[in-house]
Amino acid sequence: MRIDVVSIFPEYLAPLELSLIGKARQDGLLELNVHALRDFTTDRHRTVDDTPYGGGAGMVMKPEPWAQALATVAAAAGEATAKPVLIVPSPAGERFTQATAHELAGEDRLVFACGRYEGIDERVMEWAAEHFTVRPMSLGDYVLNGGEVAVLAMVEAIGRLLPGVVGNPESLVEESHSDGLLEYPVYTKPSSWRDRDVPAVLLSGNHGKIAQWRRHEQYRRTAERRPDLLEEFDAGKLPRADRTAFADLGYDVVDGHLKRRADAGGDSA
Ligand code: 6GU
Q: I need a surface site. Which of 74, 88, 115, 237 has the fewest CB within 10 A?
């Protein structure tokens, strides 16, 4: 996969040289290029922003430097394959999830356009649609000062799904959000630590029991912390023991979906 990032703060992307993603780049699994938006300006002051039409606070990024930068990046690797995906980090974007990360990990080319200030002139998005599949993307319902931190997060989430990047691919299977649930709690040695014992079942050697305990812990955690995820959970083919586990948590299975019982106690509704 080839990734291009355009930003007025290219140094902000330096952490992508470290750890798993840095290694993936060294190993040739991921080609990542960072471009300085100001290199695509033509005026003496290398201006990238201006005041908003219609008035209001803050500044808006000018369209022409973006068009120059994106046209250059689009042409760089040739037009051999399909249009690259242009991801525009923005709190006004569609939500970036693990499913999005999987989807984008299947692309040949991604381009990230990091806006700052109040955002990029909207006409850039219309123009860019000729060269890219444009996807405004948000990490969540809060505001960052610019797209750079969001790009660090998205590139890491996508990059670790590329073949060969994570040493043991099995570690991608049993992690939070891989099956629509939160991860089960984990423990390591010593088995007793400051008067706290590791749950006995994990020391039992009974792999069936361990798998069931872990699954039920996933249900318990998800019900407690992220009950919204259970609304999407496919409960149609759950074994009886799992239905009982959900019943204990205050959920019934109705038409293949989990429904919180009206009389269920607790505060996780
Ligand atoms: Cl992707 N970008 C910015 N600037 N702010 C955000 C965001 C993205 N996601 C949440 N807040």
A: 237
